[in-house]
Design a protein that fits this description.
This protein is 43% helix and 16% strand. The protein is α/β, with parallel strands linked by helices. The protein folds into three domains: 156 residues, D-Maltodextrin-Binding Protein, domain 2 (3-Layer(aba) Sandwich); 133 residues, Periplasmic binding protein-like II (D-Maltodextrin-Binding Protein, domain 2, 3-Layer(aba) Sandwich); 70 residues. The strands form two sheets. Strands 3, 4, 5, 6, 7, 8, 9, 10 and 11 form a nine-stranded mixed β-sheet that branches. A two-stranded parallel sheet has the order 1-2. The longest helix is centred in the last third of the chain and has 23 residues. The relative contact order is 0.13.
C-alpha cells in the first residue's frame, strides 16, 4: 500500500520539477555608468524577450566598476558588466568577455613627438576622474617611465588646454568626428607585435592587457596609419556562488543574441564565439561558464540539489530524462534561426561592398528567398515563432531597405 502511494507522489514531484526547468530565471544586472555600456545592456534586456530562459532586471542607479563588484559581492545584484582591470576578489567569478575596451591616446596633430616619452614631458593629461578605467590603465602604462622634473600632470576638467587626452572605451568611429585636428598615438607598429616590441613589454607586465590594432581610417585622419594600442575585455561577472546551471543558461542566451548585438553595434561583437577566451580574466572562471566551454550540460541533480532525495528513484530519473529530451528538442529548434542570421549578414556584407545595382537586386531576391525558407520551416515547426524569429525578419527587412536606398 505504501509503495502504491509513493509512486504517484514521485511522479507528481517529477512533473513539478520538470515544469520548473522551463521557468525564467530572474537575474539582477547592475546598470553600468558608461553610455555605451548602458546602451548595450538595455539592448540585451530587450533582445532576451519572454521566450528566454533568463529574465534580466537592471538596477535603478548606474554604478562604476568598483561599485558594481561590491553590489554583486554583497548579494544586492547577481551579475555586472565591468572592465577586466578590476582587482581580484575570491567571491567574484568571470562569466564571459563581451567586447574590447581600447586605450585611445589622443594628441594635437601640430605636435610631432619623436617618442612616447617626448609626448608626455610636461604634458597636461586628461584621463578622466581619479579611479576611472582610463586613469587606471594610463597609470599602469606609464608606471615604469621616469620623467624626472619634466613629468606630466593630470587635469580633470576639459576647459584647460590639454596636451594629451586618454580615453579607454570601445571602438566608436564617430567619437573623434568633432575633433579634426588630432592624432592617435601608436605604441609601435603591427609588425612588432609578438616580436618583443614596446606593446609586448606592456602586456608582459599587465597580463590582462592584450595588443590591439586600430585599422587605418577607423577614426578618419586621426588614424591614417594602423594604430597599435592595448585593449582590456569587458566582462560579465557574477557571484562565485551563483548557480552554475543559471550561468550556463546565461552564456547560452548571450551567444544566441550575438548576431543581433553585432548588427546594432558594428565592430564590437563579431569575435564572440562559443569557445570564448577567458585566459586573461583577473577573476576565477565561474563553474557554469566552464561547463559551457566544455559543453557539460548541468545535470538534473545539479539543478535541483535541494530535492536530491527524490531523484534517487528510477521513476523520477525516467520522467526527468523525458522532459529534458523535450526541452533539448525545443531549444535545438529555436537555435536553428542562427543559421538564417548568418546567411542574412553574409548577403548584406557581400552586397554592400558592391555598387552594381544588378548585384544588389540579386541580393534582395536572396533575402526574400531566405525569408520564404524561414517561414516554410516555421510552418513545418522546424523553427519556433519566438523573439529570435521576429528579430530575423526585422533584420532582413532592414537590410533590404539599405540595399534599396543604396
Amino acid at each position: 500500500m505504501r509503495d502504491m502511494i509513493r509512486l504517484p507522489l514521485i511522479i507528481a514531484a517529477a512533473l513539478v520539477l520538470a515544469s520548473c526547468d522551463t521557468a525564467r530565471q530572474k537575474l539582477v544586472l547592475v546598470r553600468p555608468d558608461g553610455p555605451v555600456d548602458q546602451e548595450i545592456v538595455d539592448n540585451m534586456v530587450r533582445l532576451l524577450g519572454n521566450e528566454s530562459a533568463i529574465d534580466l532586471v537592471l538596477t535603478d542607479a548606474p554604478m562604476t566598476g568598483g561599485e558594481a563588484i561590491l553590489e554583486v559581492a554583497e548579494g544586492r545584484a547577481d551579475i555586472a558588466l565591468i572592465s577586466n582591470d578590476q582587482p581580484f576578489r575570491d567571491d567574484i567569478a568571470a562569466v564571459m568577455p563581451l567586447y574590447a575596451t581600447v586605450l585611445h591616446v589622443v594628441y594635437p596633430d601640430h605636435r610631432d613627438p619623436g617618442s612616447f616619452i617626448d609626448l608626455m614631458r610636461n604634458a597636461l593629461v586628461f584621463a578622466g576622474q581619479p579611479g576611472s578605467a582610463s586613469r587606471r590603465v594610463f597609470e599602469r602604462l606609464t608606471a615604469t617611465i621616469d620623467l624626472g622634473d619634466e613629468g606630466f600632470r593630470f587635469e580633470t576638467g576639459l576647459e584647460a588646454k590639454i596636451d594629451l587626452a586618454v580615453v579607454f572605451a570601445p571602438i566608436a568611429p564617430d567619437r573623434l568626428a568633432e575633433y579634426p585636428d588630432v592624432k592617435l598615438w601608436s605604441i609601435g607598429t603591427p609588425k612588432e607585435i609578438g616580436r618583443g616590441g614596446p606593446v609586448d613589454s606592456i602586456v608582459l607586465l599587465n597580463p590582462h592587457f592584450r595588443p590591439f590594432v586600430i585599422p587605418v581610417g577607423t577614426y578618419g585622419d586621426a588614424a591614417s596609419e594602423p594604430v597599435v594600442t592595448v585593449a582590456v575585455d569587458k566582462l560579465i561577472i557574477a557571484r562565485a556562488d551563483l548557480d552554475r546551471s543559471v550561468v550556463y543558461d546565461l552564456v547560452n542566451e548571450v551567444l544566441r543574441m550575438r548576431p543581433a548585438l553585432a548588427t546594432i553595434h558594428p565592430g564590437l561583437f563579431q569575435n564572440i564565439s562559443g569557445d570564448f577566451d577567458v585566459s586573461r580574466s583577473r577573476f576565477v572562471v565561474h563553474a557554469g561558464a566552464q561547463d559551457y566551454l566544455q559543453r557539460a550540460e548541468p545535470t538534473f541533480v545539479e539543478r535541483y540539489s535541494g530535492v536530491a532525495e527524490v531523484l534517487v528513484t528510477l521513476m523520477v530519473a525516467t520522467f526527468s530524462a523525458a522532459f529534458a529530451g523535450i526541452r533539448i528538442f525545443n531549444r535545438r529548434r529555436k537555435n536553428r534561426i542562427d543559421r538564417f542570421y548568418k546567411a542574412a549578414l553574409d548577403i548584406r556584407n557581400a552586397a554592400m561592398a558592391s555598387t552594381d545595382m544588378a548585384e544588389r537586386s540579386n541580393a534582395i531576391e536572396q533575402l526574400r528567398q531566405l525569408q520564404d525558407d524561414a517561414f516554410a520551416k516555421l510552418v513545418d515547426e522546424k523553427l519556433a515563432a519566438d523573439e529570435s524569429f521576429r528579430i530575423f525578419i526585422t533584420l532582413t527587412n532592414d537590410i533590404v531597405m539599405q540595399l534599396d536606398a543604396g
